[in-house]
Amino acid sequence: MILSIESSCDDSSIAITEIETKKLIYHKKISQELQHSMYGGVVPELAARLHAEALPKILEECKDYFPKLKAIAVTNAPGLSVTLMEGVTMAKALSLALDLPLIAVNHLKGHIYSLFIEKEEIFPCTILLVSGGHTQIIEAKNHENMRLLATTLDDSFGESFDKVAKMMGLGYPGGPIVQEKGLKGDENRFDFPVPLRQSPNIEFSYSGLKNAVRMQIEKLGENGLTEQDICDIAASFEKSAVAHIMQKIKKLFKTKNAKNFAIVGGASANIRLRTAIEEFCKQKGMKLYLSELKYCSDNAAMIGRVAVEQYKRADFTTIDDIDVKTRIKEF
Ligand code: ATP
Ligand code: FE
User: Could you give the angle at which helices 227-252 and 207-221 cross, rounded to 10 degrees?
Assistant: First the structure.
C-alpha cells in the first residue's frame, strides 16, 4: 500500500491506496474553507497552521496500516509553498521513520487521475482542467505522455468566480455561491466581454472579464447592490466566463479530433460549463468523462492514484532531492 498526503492549498488530506488493485483503502480530508471564508480567499499562513494541526490527526487514524506500506507519496508542486511544506515535511519524516521510498506527485496530474479512482483508465484523452489556480487543456496519451495544449495568461476560471464573489461580499469559495446567485439572475442584463474573442490562439484570460465586472459593480454600487443586481451580475459574468472556454475548445477541435474528453478540477462542478461541454461532446461524437464530485476538489486519493503508477515504474525521489514548487511548466 501507499500512503499519500495532500496539502497544496486549503485541504488537508491523507489516503491509502493498494498498489496491486489500485483500490482506495482509506481516505480522509479536512477542508479549511470555513476558516478562509471571512477573508474572501486562502490566507497562506493560516492554511499552513491548520495543516499542521489537521495532518497529524488524520495520520493517527492510519497507524494500523503502517506495516503494510511500501511507499510514502506527497504533493510537492504546484501550490502554496508554505502549505506544500507541511505535507512534504510529514512525508520526509514518515519516509525516514518507516524506511520507505518517497514519491513526489504533481498536483495537476493528481486532478487528472481523479478520473481513475477505482475506475478504468481513459487514454488517449483530452482534458480540461479547471481549478482554483489553473485553466488548462491537456492531451494525455498514456501515463507518461501528457502535453499541455493551452493555459491561462493570468487568472484561472475558478479564481475569477472567487474574485467576483469577493467583490460582492459573498464569501469563499466563490464558484458555488456565484453559480447559485446566477441561477436566479438575468444573464442578458449586463454585456460583459468574452475574453480573447478575436485571438486565434488557444489560451485563456480572465483578468479583463474580472475588471469589467468590477467596473459594473462600482457603477451600481453607489447606492449599494440589490439582491437582483447581484444575481444578474453573477449570471451575466458566468455566461461570458463559460463562453470563453467554449469558444477556445471549439477552436481547438477545428483542427483536431479526439475520442475522449474529460473535465477535472473543483470548477468542473459548474453546471453551465458541464452542460455546454456535454452538448459539444455530443455534437462531436466524443465520450465525456467527469470525476466524481467528491474527488473534484483537492484530495489525497487522487495523489495516491498517481503514486501507484509512479511506484510501478520506480519513479522515486529522496528526502534530499524533494523540493516544493509553486508553479510547474510541464507535466
Ligand atoms: P489548483 O489545483 O489549481 O491549485 P485548487 O485545487 O485549490 O486549485 P480546486 O479545489 O480544484 O482548486 O477548485 C476550487 C475552485 O473551484 C475555486 O476557485 C472555486 O471557486 C471553484 N469552483 C467550485 N465550484 C464551482 C462552480 N460550481 N462554478 C465555478 N467554480 C467553482
Ligand atoms: Fe487542486
Answer: 160
| Ligand 2 centre distance from Cα of residue 219 (Å) | 34
Largest CA distance in the chain: 64
**Cis bond leading into 193, ω under 30°?**
no
Q: Is the pTM of this model over 0.90?
A: yes
Question: To which H or E segment does residue 6 belong?
Answer: strand 2-6
Q: What is the DSSP string of 208-275?
A: HHHHHHHHHHHHHHTT---HHHHHHHHHHHHHHHHHHHHHHHHHHTTS---SEEEEESGGGG-HHHHH
Tell me the per-residue pLDDT of 264-305, one tens digit each, with 9 for 90 and over.
Answer: 999 999 999 999 999 999 999 999 999 999 999 999 999 999
C-alpha cell at 254: 477545428
Domains of the chain, first to last: 2-117+295-312 (3.30.420.40), 125-290 (3.30.420.40)
Average pLDDT, the chain: 97
* CA–CA dist 324, 63 (Å, integer): 26
Bridge partners, residue 289, by sequence: 262
ipTM of the complex: 0.98
CB under 6 Å to ligand 1: residues?
A: 8-9, 79, 107, 111, 131-134, 158-159, 161-162, 173-176, 179, 265-267, 269-270, 297-298
Report the atom number in ligand 1 closest to the C-alpha of 78.
Answer: 4
- How far is 73 from 94, CA to CA, in rounded Å? 10
- Please check whether residue 55 is in contact with residue 90, taking contact to mean a CB–CB distance below 8 angstroms: yes
Report residue 279 as a C-alpha cell. Answer: 452538448
For the sheet with 11-17, list strands across it.
24-31, 11-17, 2-6, 71-77, 102-106
Residues 288, 99: Cα–Cα separation, whole Å: 42
